[in-house]
Design a protein that fits this description.
about 130 residues; alpha/beta; Immunoglobulin-like; 3-stranded mixed β-sheet; 2 helices; binds copper (II) ion
């Protein structure tokens, strides 16, 4: 009899704690991660590519655009745009860097990873308003 009571108390405790834990999760509804809240352009380095396709990035003259580079790969990467003086320096896995695309001139500028320039390169197109 005593043992049954103890088992019941333990079971009720589990239910109570589980319930409180659930309520806690509801109250602290998941916030978007800091990366998701960042406006601007996000480039994710993974599998020796930027955003899977090395996409063309568009920006406007005299309108700085925030550029975040995140290394989600198992190896180191960086992002360099010689013509726009952008260089994140080497990013280890899980590191990120925030910079900006800013240009007074229209044009097409090449971005690349200095460690994997054969596969990780694309264009930044800066256009007038
Ligand atoms: Cu790379």
């Amino acid at each position: 009899m005593l043992r049954n009571n103890i088992i019941a108390i333990i079971a009720i405790s589990f239910v109570t704690v589980g319930g409180l834990w659930g309520i806690g999760n509801l109250l602290n509804s998941p916030q978007p991660s800091s990366l998701e809240r960042r406006e601007g352009i996000l480039l994710v380095a993974k599998d020796n590519l930027f955003n899977e396709t090395n996409p063309t990035i568009y920006a406007k003259i005299d309108e700085p655009t925030k550029l975040t580079v995140v290394n989600k790969d198992l190896v180191r990467h960086d992002l360099v745009v010689d013509a726009l003086n952008i260089n994140t320096a080497i990013l280890s896995p899980e590191q990120d860097a925030v910079t900006a695309i800013a240009s007074e001139k229209a044009g097409e500028f090449e971005y690349y990873c200095s460690l994997h320039p054969a596969t990780m390169r694309g264009s930044i197109v800066v256009r007038g308003n």
